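Tokens in:
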């Protein structure tokens, strides 16, 4: 009888240990995803602040405004940061729920004429990333 009680206690201890480990890993993964998101979000926000406010105001012009080389570099860095964030999401480092927080803002940003123009310039560079290209195409179709 005592032997059965000890086996039962051992089994319960093992189950509690497994649940504790799973909970710790799950919490750590959520924290890691949130940390990645916050760092990339801060990076994109810092880059956006480097652009003049006129970059974000579409005044009905069909043509994108002329950009300086520094503005063009900043737009490219924003696009590549979005690409990296998207790839992290695809690979499971960024939970979909966290991605959905910022996705509408990212889509709106990429729909601005200056970003659309630079995406055309960078189009060939994303040929080896077909899922990202499809997402960009889908984003541009839903915004037009």
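Residues out:
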């Amino acid at each position: 009888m005592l032997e059965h009680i000890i086996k039962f206690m051992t089994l319960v201890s093992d189950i509690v240990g497994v649940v504790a480990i799973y909970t710790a890993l799950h919490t750590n993964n959520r924290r890691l995803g949130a940390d990645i998101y916050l760092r990339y979000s801060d990076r994109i926000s810092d880059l956006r602040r480097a652009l003049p406010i006129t970059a974000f105001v579409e005044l009905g012009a069909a043509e994108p405004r002329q950009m300086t080389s520094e503005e063009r570099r900043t737009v490219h860095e924003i696009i590549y940061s979005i690409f990296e964030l998207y790839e992290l999401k695809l690979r499971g480092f960024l939970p979909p729920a966290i991605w959905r927080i910022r996705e509408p803002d990212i889509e709106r940003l990429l729909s601005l004429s200056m970003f659309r123009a630079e995406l055309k310039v960078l189009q060939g560079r994303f040929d080896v990333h077909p899922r990202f290209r499809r997402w960009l195409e889908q984003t541009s179709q839903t915004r037009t």
